[in-house]
Design the sequence.
């Protein structure tokens, strides 16, 4: 069986979290509950970040920005300095970098994720598609990596003439919605090939690109999987992440809204089939595009997903804690028949962005007032607080709002109440847009796909009103700051 050569299960006394922001906080809390010491790392712009305060220890990497979080040598040096035995990469940064996973292994540190050879294998999107096809799973039609120059152009044109437009130019090492370009004409294809290659090199240090047929207006469905070192592999159901902007997810839902238990079952079985083929270990996500009653393999993300919260809400399973157990050598404590999907969960990313201005980030603006909702079925994952300055050098996520309801309607009703419960004064946020979105009949009935924002332009026709409670909170904050009421007569 896979992994039987591993040492006996053991507890890590100290774990370093190689990330920042809300996901670092999420992982730190799980480590502390697990009974280990959690160590944070940070760059200078993050010196007042909440993940540093929550951790048991923190170590400065450098001035940054971003470059030190991506510096494998510095991260490993920090881990050795504090005596960490394992590293959790979170998502983004080095999470899917096979060189980082390999470096951890060579340094005698446990990488809390799949082994480096699996990260490398599945990080190549072309190879992953081929493995899916070998496992009998249909994949979106695509090419091998395109050679540079005229040879690559000829291959691209040939593929385009066979499959038609639109097409997607993708980075072989891409992920997280990055490294994707949609092209609709032959001229646009030829113009964008060199641009996409440069973007791939800059984002992933790998300039290889390939083409993939664009399936019009599909649903984007993903399956959460967990595998241990002893060959045990399970899935935790599906998520629907079809509502996106620029190929990046805004809203995540569990379980899917396919209204076809048979189709959902087949997708979950397909996810396990390819995972078993590669001997998958730890947490991962198998992604599919669904059109009608057909589904196509897209990719496997070898890390924790941003949207893992909705799966945790409907299963009651702590995915991060499971990651820690697996990395420590423990077998899965649950079998497939133990996984029960109950109710519905919705996650919305509360970003400091202006939806009316193509979701332009509000970097540099200060959160003057912050009040958050709560109550039954409401979960918040974030690091924002009064006085928080939206970073210009990192992502614009303020907090992830996840709600749970026994029925879909209950979840949507709770989501509306929770969104109305936020008071955020300072930067523009996605909240007014979400409040408009959840009133839409198509959203309320679960009828949405990846074209949802394009086909529902009226969702952006909302009035960004400042509620009375926000005005009062803003006044109180200003009086507190100045030491007097500037509006007193």
Sequence:
């Amino acid at each position: 069986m896979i992994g039987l050569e591993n040492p006996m299960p053991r507890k890590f006394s100290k774990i370093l979290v190689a990330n920042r922001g809300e996901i670092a906080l999420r992982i730190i809390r799980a480590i502390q509950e697990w009974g280990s010491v959690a160590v944070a790392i940070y760059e200078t712009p993050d010196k007042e970040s909440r993940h540093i305060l929550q951790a048991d220890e923190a170590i400065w990497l450098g001035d940054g920005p971003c470059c030190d979080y991506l510096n494998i040598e510095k991260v490993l040096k920090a881990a050795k300095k504090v005596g960490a035995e394992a590293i959790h990469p979170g998502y983004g940064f080095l999470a899917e970098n096979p060189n980082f996973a390999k470096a951890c292994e060579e340094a005698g540190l446990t990488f809390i994720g799949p082994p480096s050879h699996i990260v490398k294998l599945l990080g190549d999107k072309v190879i992953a598609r081929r493995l899916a096809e070998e496992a009998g799973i249909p994949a979106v039609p695509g090419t091998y990596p395109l050679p540079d120059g005229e040879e690559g152009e000829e291959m691209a044109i040939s593929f385009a003439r066979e499959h038609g437009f639109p097409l997607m130019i993708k980075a072989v090492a891409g992920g997280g919605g990055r490294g994707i370009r949609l092209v609709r004409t032959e001229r646009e294809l030829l113009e964008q090939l060199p641009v996409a290659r440069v973007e791939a090199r800059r984002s992933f240090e790998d300039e290889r690109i390939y083409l993939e047929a664009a399936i019009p207006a599909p649903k984007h469905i993903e399956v959460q999987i967990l595998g241990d070192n002893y060959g045990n592999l399970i899935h935790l159901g599906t998520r629907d992440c079809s509502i996106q902007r620029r190929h990046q997810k805004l809203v995540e839902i569990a379980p899917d809204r396919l209204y076809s238990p048979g189709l959902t079952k087949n997708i979950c079985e397909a996810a396990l089939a390819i995972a078993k083929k590669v001997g998958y270990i730890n947490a991962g996500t198998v992604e599919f595009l669904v059109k009608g009653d057909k589904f196509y393999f897209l990719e496997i993300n070898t890390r924790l997903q941003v949207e893992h919260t909705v799966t945790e809400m409907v299963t009651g399973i702590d995915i991060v804690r499971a990651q820690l157990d697996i990395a420590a050598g423990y077998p899965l404590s649950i079998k497939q028949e133990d996984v029960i999907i109950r109710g519905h969960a919705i996650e919305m990313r509360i970003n400091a962005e202006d939806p009316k201005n193509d979701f332009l980030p509000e970097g540099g603006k200060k959160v003057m007032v912050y009040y958050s909702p709560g109550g039954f079925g409401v979960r918040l994952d974030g690091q924002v607080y009064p006085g928080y300055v939206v970073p210009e050098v990192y992502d614009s996520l303020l907090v992830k709002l996840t709600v749970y309801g026994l029925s879909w309607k209950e979840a949507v009703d709770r989501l509306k109440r929770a969104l109305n419960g936020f008071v955020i004064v300072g930067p523009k946020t996605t909240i007014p847009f979400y409040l408009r979105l959840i009133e839409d009949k198509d959203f309320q009935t679960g009828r949405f796909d990846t074209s949802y924002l394009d086909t529902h332009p009226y969702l952006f026709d909302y009035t960004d009103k400042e509620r009375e409670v926000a005005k009062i909170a803003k006044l109180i904050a200003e009086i507190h700051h100045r030491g007097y009421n500037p509006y007193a007569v």
Q: What stands out?
A: Confidence is low (pLDDT under 50) at residues 1-5. The chain has three domains: 14-112, 141-213, 219-468.
